[in-house]
Amino acid sequence: MPNLNFFGKSDIGLKRLNNEDAFAIRSNEGLFVLADGMGGEAAGEVASRIFIEAALEVFSRTTYHSEQETLEGVQEAFRLSNERILNHVEQNPQDQGMGCTAELIAFYNQQHFVLGHVGDSRTYLFRQGRLRQLTRDHSFVQDQVDQGLITQEEARVHSLKNVILRAVGIEDPLAVDLIRGKSHSGDLFLLCSDGLSDLVNEASIQEVLSLPLSLAKKGDGLIERAKFRGGFDNITVILCEVT
Which tens digits make up the pLDDT trace of 125-152? Predict the structure, then answer.
């Protein structure tokens, strides 16, 4: 697995009374996980915690060396968390509708990674000064953009921008986007909840990541920009730099 520098932080934001985001970093295992819960009362917090715990459990069982092993590990993390959330709702009907969006990136060997994605949390890659979104939002407005019915700018302020079409814990089986790639020295991966991406556009994210600052200061800078723009949701960022 590559040498990695990293930073992670979750902020409640300025409007919410609780934090439904969760994240975990296991750098020795090359594992970075983020979840954004949804559901009434504390149900969102429960869903995101279930996802994080399931992912850590799966990746603690063995060390993944090949692409196929890592793919299967990522798929199992999503399958297990989906099953556990559905079981929780079955036993606790008052939590009907709870679930979470999720990002999981697992590095293996020296330069490779597998990324699992469900929902509208996002993973970006900042490489050689350019920012690129690796994931596609599973949302109503993204489908509208893909069909050419609205622009990206219109999507950012659309009244239905929070309508999610796919989430962990809603239905079985769960369809997971799996993205495979090769990392390079200097690559910087950003995993974030929509509390960041809804308020801070790609140009602004790229500007922060381009600054000659530590990962901690870059992460704090992204969160502060989201809060400056209203901080309407919980804001969670993970930065992972390949060195």
Answer: 999 999 999 999 998 888 887 888 887 7
C-alpha count within 13 angstroms, C-beta hemisphere, residue 15 = 11
Q: Is the pTM of this model over 0.90?
A: yes
Q: How many Å is the Cα radius of gyration of the chain?
A: 17
Mean pLDDT of 169-180: 97
Q: Name the CATH superfamily for 4-240.
A: PPM-type phosphatase domain (3.60.40.10)
**Nearest-angstrom CA–CA distance, 229 and 97:** 29
SS (H, E, C) 68-136: HHHHHHHHHHHHHHHHHHHHHHHHCHHHCCCEEEEEEEEEECCCEEEEEEECCCEEEEEECCEEEECCC
* C-beta of residue 107 within 8 angstroms of C-beta of residue 183: yes
**Dihedral (CA of 189, 216, 74, 87) sign:** negative
192 neighbors 236 (Cβ within 8 angstroms): yes
